[in-house]
Design goal:
Strand order of the largest sheet: 2-3-4-6-5
Low-confidence stretches: 1-28
Strand content: 25-35%
Helix content: 25-40%
Number of helices: 4
Structural class: alpha/beta
Number of strands: 6
Distance between the termini: 65 Å
Mean pLDDT: 79
Shape: globular
């Protein structure tokens, strides 16, 4: 009877050790596959975690190529993809192509402090205007300063209307991407 109990204890110990190793390995390689369609409603669950996402490139920012936007199906939801440390820029030739991106999901929090800093930046010479929320809409880089001030006021109104201290905007910082042929 003792030998059966000892074998049972050894078996349980073996199973626990095997399962914990497999679990650690799974967590180390834990990359979530997101779709454009549910990006806005699920992104908050994956901030600062690795994700895969694919879609059709609808826009690349012409000032430096540091951003591109992808959509899937109807273009009502756009996901912003930014260049990571190993990607110099997104080429305009990607527009219309389907891409698969591996990256880190990032959150931009718009609060009163952010809006005050953005507003102060806009009051500086035009070449210093780097802040703001990039929408991916055609011509957003050429948006006049008055329109940017209007956008700041709209965000302030949203903060007030929603009775919240911040708005969150999500993007993917690309580690790598491939064009799907």
């Amino acid at each position: 009877m003792r030998s059966i109990a000892s074998m049972f204890i050894l078996l349980v110990a073996f199973m626990v050790s095997c399962n914990s190793g497999a679990k650690e390995e799974a967590n180390a390689n834990d990359t979530v596959l997101l779709t454009v369609a549910v990006f806005d409603t699920t992104a908050y669950n994956h901030v600062d975690k690795p994700v895969w996402i694919e879609g059709t490139v609808t826009h690349t920012c012409k000032h430096g190529g540091k951003r591109m936007f992808i959509a899937d199906g109807n273009d009502s939801i756009l996901v912003e993809i930014t260049t990571g440390p190993d990607i110099v820029k997104f080429d305009e030739a990607l527009i219309g192509s389907r891409v698969r991106v591996l990256g880190m999901l990032r959150e931009l929090r718009i609060d009163e402090k952010y809006l005050n800093e953005w507003e102060a930046e806009l009051r500086q010479p035009a070449e210093n205007h780097e802040a703001g929320v990039h929408t991916g809409q055609k011509g957003h880089e050429d948006q006049p300063v008055d329109a940017k001030f209007e956008q700041i006021n709209n965000y302030r109104q949203q903060l007030k209307d929603l009775s919240t201290d911040h708005l969150s905007f999500y993007s993917v910082e690309a580690v790598s991407f491939t064009e799907i042929k």
